[in-house]
Every structure is written in structure tokens, then in C-alpha cells.
Amino acid sequence: MSSSSPPPAPVIAVVVFLIKDNTVLLGRRRDSVGLNTFALPGGRLEFGESFEECATREVKEETGLDIKDIQFLTVTNDVFTEAEKPFHSVAIYMRASLSDPDQIPQNVEPDKCYGWDWYDWKKPPQPLFRPLETMLKTGLNPFLTH
Ligand code: 8DG
Ligand code: MG
């Protein structure tokens, strides 16, 4: 970034702890930000959306799954200064469950993700996407409000 260009505006994203029994849905990122790290489904809030609408849309777009019982969990504020293009992201974390527990996740955006699977949140795969790792260290348990 040249010293004359203003920094990019912070991005607002909604990400979803999709819970099934004792497990949570994670996918390995295929993106320059957090390449190869495990992250939740989610993406940028679009104009006029509620957090619940954004959660529903992003989960559907990335995994093909339909969700229900969507609740607010927490919010995080991360600045990625070491990224190729530095950026600042505010993430709204929601939790949800599957509308139909027999539904199977699809890798709808294979250019952005290596695939989705269910993982035990007590033994999450490594490495986690850094903002998710930071959130985990706060001790918040997404299962408690279940
Ligand atoms: P979009 O263009 O489809 O709207 O966005 P995206 O391409 O799906 O964006 P993303 O990188 O998946 O998510 C947006 C931001 O959310 C991401 O850059 C940083 C923040 N974020 C967290 N934690 C997590 C997480 O666990 N998963 C995802 N996907 N994003 C997260 O802070
Ligand atoms: Mg995404």
C-alpha cells in the first residue's frame, strides 16, 4: 500500500458456528487471507441484511445447507497488517443448527475452500484461522447456549 492511499474501510462479516451434536462445521480456506487454515462458513454483510439473513445466505452459498435457530454469540475485531493487502474485519459470530440434521455439506465454492467437515470443538483441527483462534482463547463456548 502506498503511503498516499487511504487504508481500506473495515469489513463487516457474519460467520456461523453450525452445530451438530458435539461437532462444528469447519472448512480449510483456499484464500490468500488465512490460506490452509480452518474457518467457519461466513462472509460479508450485504446492504439491508439482518445478521440472521446474512448467516442463512452465506451458509447456503458456501455449503448448500439450510439452518435454523440462529442466535447471536459474540463479535470480534481483527486487523491483518501482515496480509498482502492489509485489512480490518469485524466479525459477528452467530450459532445455528441444521434445519434437517441429515443434510450433508457440499463444497459449493471449491475455489475458496478445500471442503467442509464436522469437527469436535474440544479438539479442533490445526491450524485454525487466526481470528477464530483468538476467539477460542477468550473461552467462549458456542455449545453453552445450545
Ligand atoms: P464474500 O465476498 O462471499 O461476502 O466474503 P467471503 O469471501 O466469504 O469472506 P470470508 O473471508 O470468508 O469472511 C469474511 C471475513 O470474516 C474474513 O475475512 C475474516 C472474518 N472472519 C473471522 N472469523 C472467521 C471465520 O471463522 N470464518 C470466516 N469465513 N470468516 C471469518 O473473523
Ligand atoms: Mg467465506
From TrEMBL:
Residues 7-141 form the Nudix hydrolase domain. GO terms for cellular component: cytosol. One of its GO terms (molecular function) is 8-oxo-7,8-dihydrodeoxyguanosine triphosphate pyrophosphatase activity. Signal peptide: none annotated. SUPFAM superfamilies: Nudix. Keywords: Hydrolase. The keyword Transferase does not apply. It holds the Pfam family NUDIX. InterPro entries: Nudix_hydrolase, NUDIX_hydrolase-like_dom_sf, NUDIX_hydrolase_CS, NUDIX_hydrolase_dom. GO terms for biological process: dGTP catabolic process. Gene3D superfamilies: Nucleoside Triphosphate Pyrophosphohydrolase. PANTHER family: 8-OXO-DGTP DIPHOSPHATES NUDT15, NUCLEOTIDE TRIPHOSPHATE DIPHOSPHATASE NUDT15. Belongs to the Nudix hydrolase family. This is Nudix hydrolase domain-containing protein.
